[in-house]
């Protein structure tokens, strides 16, 4: 038998043995070592190591064991040793990059359990690190296959910067946007944002390098490009959570024909309303002086609403509030309430606002004021009845 055939048979036998040992090592690690590690992790009091199991860090790491065994034994493959070592080292490098990627995801999972993660998410930065590692590994693999120094290959990439910037435009824009959003504290996980151009109106679920995931109030999920939050405008409602107050800015419209100066009998009647009794008394004393201006019923009504808000248990007393007149229109005289509730929950806020305006609308009649609204079918029906009554009266 020639020396060549002996060498070939030797290589084949060695390859089969190495492959068998590698497979046995893999199954031993997966069936024996992994369960032991899992039991130790699940049995201790620590919580962070559970995320290592969740992201399958140990499971992916077991793939390194057969590769290391094969790499160690590849030197016995004669003339093919160098090629097998190169292939094995490339596979090991790629698998290590994958394991490191899983570790970065684990770090993000652990960090997300901390309260600070809502203010300073790191997912975008970790994704940048992961991409950088993958790029460096890719360059190393290409350099190994070409038999050149990786640094020589890196120097040539500078000439391809324009191509890379075009291919990875969204990634680069997302990276810059993610850094700006984090550094300027423009967005946090849990913030309520509103961005009509992208149909987003809800709570921020996730901030990654390229996208921001928003859970809308109709339970749909909207994905917004990170750079859109920098280039376009959006509304962040975080302020209402930090201040503990949510704004009410709504008006009732008064029929201007019901506005009048208050007579002495009106003042006496209004003085019996507890919330404005002192205000009315002050104006009675003021009006007794020569040349003093009379007060209107709408002026007392505004004072009444102001006192009502000051005494309302659900109105925030430490934030500015005002009851004011707006420009009269063909819809009447708007009386606007500008105040803040001390309960920011949406349902509670709407109930408080409704309660206030129900009271404001009903109380207008106590000041001889009429609320304005466009004529309805009921109003037109009453007009017809009045016209018919007048016509019958004239005929009789």
From TrEMBL:
Any one annotated GO CC term: plasma membrane
A Pfam family hit: MS_channel_2nd
Sequence ranges assigned to domain Mechanosensitive ion channel MscS C-terminal in this UniProt record: 307-361
Segments forming domain Mechanosensitive ion channel MscS: 170-238
Entry keyword set: Cell inner membrane, Cell membrane, Membrane, Stress response, Transmembrane, Transmembrane helix
Main location: membrane
Keyword Cell membrane part of the UniProt annotation: yes
Subcellular location: Cell inner membrane
Entry superkingdom: Bacteria
Gene3D superfamilies: 2.30.30.60
Keyword presence, Transmembrane helix: yes
InterPro entries given in the database record: LSM_dom_sf (IPR010920), MS_channel_C (IPR049278), MscS_beta-dom_sf (IPR023408), MscS_channel_2nd (IPR006685), YbdG (IPR030192)
Spans through the membrane: 6-29, 57-74, 86-104, 125-146, 152-181
Bilayer disposition of the protein: Multi-pass membrane protein
Molecular function GO terms recorded: mechanosensitive monoatomic ion channel activity
GO biological process, one term: cellular response to osmotic stress
Entry similarity comment: Belongs to the MscS (TC 1.A.23) family.
Protein name: Mechanosensing system component YbdG
Annotated source species: Alkalibacter saccharofermentans DSM 14828
């Amino acid at each position: 038998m020639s020396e060549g055939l002996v060498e070939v048979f030797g290589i084949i036998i060695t390859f089969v043995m190495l492959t068998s040992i590698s497979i046995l090592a893999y199954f031993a690690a997966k069936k024996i070592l992994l369960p032991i590690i899992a039991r130790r992790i699940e049995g201790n009091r620590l919580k962070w190591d559970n995320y290592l199991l969740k992201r399958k860090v140990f499971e992916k790491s077991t793939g390194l064991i057969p590769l290391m065994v094969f790499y160690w034994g590849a030197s016995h493959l004669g003339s093919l040793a160098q090629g097998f070592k190169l292939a094995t080292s490339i596979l090991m490098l790629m698998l290590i990059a994958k394991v490191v990627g899983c570790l970065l995801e684990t770090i993000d999972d652990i960090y997300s359990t901390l309260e600070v993660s809502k203010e300073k998410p790191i997912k975008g930065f970790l994704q940048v690190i992961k991409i950088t590692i993958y790029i460096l590994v890719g360059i190393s693999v290409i350099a190994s296959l070409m038999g050149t120094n990786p640094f020589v290959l890196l120097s040539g990439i500078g000439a391809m910067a324009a191509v890379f910037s075009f291919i990875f435009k969204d990634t680069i824009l997302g990276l810059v946007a993610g850094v700006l959003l984090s550094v300027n504290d423009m967005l946090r996980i849990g913030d309520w944002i509103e961005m009509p151009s992208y149909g987003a109106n809800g709570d921020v679920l996730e901030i990654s390098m390229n996208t921001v995931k928003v859970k809308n109030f109709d339970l749909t999920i909207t994905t917004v490009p990170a750079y859109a939050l920098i280039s376009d405008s959006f509304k962040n409602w975080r302020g209402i959570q930090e201040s503990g107050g949510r704004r009410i800015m709504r008006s009732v419209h008064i029929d201007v024909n019901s506005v009048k100066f208050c007579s002495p009998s009106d003042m006496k009647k209004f003085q019996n309303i507890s919330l404005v009794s002192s205000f009315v008394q002050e104006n009675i004393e003021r009006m007794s002086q020569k040349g003093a201006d009379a007060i209107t019923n709408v002026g007392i009504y505004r004072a009444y609403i102001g006192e009502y808000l000051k005494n309302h248990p659900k109105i925030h007393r430490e934030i500015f509030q005002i009851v004011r007149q707006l420009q009269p229109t063909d819809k009447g005289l708007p009386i606007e309430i500008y105040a803040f509730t001390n309960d920011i929950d949406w349902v509670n806020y709407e109930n408080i606002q409704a309660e206030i305006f129900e009271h404001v609308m009903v109380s207008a009649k106590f000041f001889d004021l009429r609320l304005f609204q466009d004529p309805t079918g009921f109003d037109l029906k009453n007009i017809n009845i009045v016209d018919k009554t007048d016509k019958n009266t004239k005929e009789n």
